[in-house]
Amino acid sequence: MHTTEQLQQILDTAIQNLKFPDHPKQLYDPISYIINLGGKRVRPLLVLMATELFGADANESVHAAMAIEIFHNFTLVHDDIMDNAPLRRGQATVHEKWSTNVAILSGDVMMVEANKNLAKVNPVFLKDVLDTFNATAQGVCEGQQLDMEFEGRDDVSIEEYINMIRLKTAVLLGGALKLGAIIAGASAKDADLIEQFGENIGIAFQLQDDILDVYADPEKFGKQVGGDIIANKKTFLLLKALAKTDSLELQGWIANSNPNIQEKVQAVTAIYNELQIREEAEKEMMKYAAVAFQNLKDIEVPLANKHDLHELAEQLLKRNN
Amino acid sequence: MHTTEQLQQILDTAIQNLKFPDHPKQLYDPISYIINLGGKRVRPLLVLMATELFGADANESVHAAMAIEIFHNFTLVHDDIMDNAPLRRGQATVHEKWSTNVAILSGDVMMVEANKNLAKVNPVFLKDVLDTFNATAQGVCEGQQLDMEFEGRDDVSIEEYINMIRLKTAVLLGGALKLGAIIAGASAKDADLIEQFGENIGIAFQLQDDILDVYADPEKFGKQVGGDIIANKKTFLLLKALAKTDSLELQGWIANSNPNIQEKVQAVTAIYNELQIREEAEKEMMKYAAVAFQNLKDIEVPLANKHDLHELAEQLLKRNN
Predict the structure, then answer these.
(1) Does the pLDDT value for residue B279 go beyond 80?
(2) Mean pLDDT (whole number) for B292-308
(3) A56 vs chain B: nearest CA distance in angstroms?
(4) Which of A33, A93, A181, B217 satisfies CB 3.0 to 4.6 Å to A80 for a cystine?
(5) What is the pLDDT of residues A238-266, one digit of tens each?
(6) CA–CA gap between residue B116 and residue B114 (Å, rounded)
(7) b/e map A106-130, b = 16+ CB within 10 Å
């Protein structure tokens, strides 16, 4: 088994070795640009870790890992158009740096590049790999659609919200792990368990994200604390608060189209504190984390094989930025 | 072997049987909408015809045909955003009827649906099918990018133009035929020949389109005769005319940002007539058609098998609308 650091090295090399055509430049330059903005490469790492969990060599699943990373970056490019986002990892988004048309079409060809990488996996596993990848990709699109729809709705339930973050964020973690498992020849039962592990970690991770947005240490947090509050984003925290109180003060802050931003963040945070929303969110997060770790425990491989994946999951859920 | 009419019946049934999820509605409704706008279904028909050309049953390649049809419709949805087109087959485009964001995301999920259909082909051929499909999809994206870039350039050569229409239009015809051939177990040589047949027919078809735009019978033509002239579209005719003359009159019409449209169409057509541009375009078209029919001739199957495909190609090149 490779160490996590060794796997990251394998990924870095594979990413550097990704080659796209030179021409037409405007079609392919944005691909290298977005992929080289960096990021933690968690998703492709999960592909490799799952392959090694089941006793195969990570090099067997490098192409699938690249497919997942390119697909993920494709969704970022298109989501940034839809969300009208100017920045991604502190740099101009593709539609800002080039144009919306370039971002649409480069995104499209990234989807093709993802599929080209996927087609390189061992043909024995190809059908299963495709079915898993396509189901994952479909889920991610559905999640983005629901996220957009929720902006215009004021009756989103907690259950709908959890389903949305499951689709938008968690199924890609689950799908990445399942791909790695399939390529290692894992049993269908174990492949499903590792997928569920990823989905549950993903939901816990997103809930942690919601909590950090309000309660992160501003010194360590990469972005503005309270960003979700300012944007009235329907996070678990806001939906839970709305479910627990019919406080006119909270509704007033939501309805106020031109508030003092600092006052709004302070006031809404105070309401959350009073309603013990942070504790509720942490309880929910721990619930999904507990199911995830049970999924991992149920997988029939030697305990030692699970160590690195367990540790990565712990780190993802303990982060403070 | 099925007749062409029988194959069209198989396609109609398969299209009617395409099922997409009900939810989220805004993600999936546009797929049914665009696919049911109709069209001649030439591309999926080519998949089936190629399968039967090589002695297999068209039902073997129905899933690949659906993948091609869904992919083609996906490109229409995204191209219409990029081209800012209000109408498609006389109806509102997806971004007009819903929104640009819906059109982007529905398009993305159509690409996934195309891949899901593709994954259903006989696993024996899956790797080859994917490689062909992905190369085709990549070519189509490159063609659209070049088409957009050409709008802003005034030094496009005839050679570049032919390469652009090859990518944007012809590779999909060639790819559709090659998919059908692969699924019938055709030899690599024959699969390449049928692909080249499709590409050459596709280029001839697009040149015919350029000619019809100027010289169609207005009574039979579905759209405004001279539309390309009005839009200064860099077709084979315009590029050839610019290469053959440094007529200030032609350049004047191109530079005029607010011309009398009827006068412009008449005047530019008169210049084309004087320069015998129609004859040049027809010669070029016949050149590609001749290569195409030679490709078909070179394929090692009984002559009788080639009849329907030959006839379809003839019809495509003889159409007057």
Answers:
(1) yes
(2) 97
(3) 22
(4) A93
(5) 999 999 998 899 999 999 999 999 999 99
(6) 5
(7) bbbbbbbbbbbbbbbbeeebbebbb
pLDDT of residue A218: 84
φ/ψ of B206, rounded to 5, equals -70, -35
Q: How far apart are the first and last CA of chain B?
A: 29
Which residues from A are below 8 Å from B when comparing CB atoms? 21, 24, 26-27, 78, 81-82, 101, 104-105, 107-109, 111-113, 115-116, 118-119, 123, 126-127, 130-131, 134, 137-138, 141-142, 144-146, 148-149
Residue B93's φ and ψ, nearest 5 degrees, are -70, 165
Q: If you search the block for the tokens 């592990």, which residue do you land on?
A: A197
pLDDT mean across residues, chain B = 96
Q: How many CA atoms lie within 13 A of A315 on its CB side?
A: 9
Which residues, at least 6 apart from B115, have a Cβ–Cβ distance to it below 8 Å? A115, A130, A134, A137, B67
CA–CA separation, B234 vs B202, rounded Å?
18
CB B309, CB B49: distance < 8 Å: yes
ipTM attached to this prediction? 0.95
Chain A residues in contact with B130 (beta carbon < 8 A):
115, 118-119, 126, 130
Q: What's the mean per-residue pLDDT of chain A? A: 96
Q: Encode pLDDT of A228-243 as tens digits.
A: 999 999 999 999 999 9
**Region A163-177 average pLDDT:** 98
* Best residue in B105, B126, B150, B163 for a mutation probing chain A (most A CBs within 10 Å): B105
Length of chain A, in residues: 321
> Cβ B123–A119 below 8 Å, yes or no?
no
Q: How close B257 comes to chain A (CA, Å)?
A: 24
What confidence score (pLDDT) does residue B182 get? Answer: 98
Please give the DSSP secondary-structure letter assigned to residue A223: S
A93: amino acid identity, one letter = T
Determine whether the interchain pair A126/B131 forms a contact, defined as Cβ–Cβ distance below 8 Å: no
In this predicted structure, what is the pLDDT of residue A223?
Answer: 77
Partners of B148 on chain A (C-beta within 8 Å) are 101, 105
pLDDT of A320: 64
Query: Which domains are delineated in chain A?
Result: 4-318 (1.10.600.10)
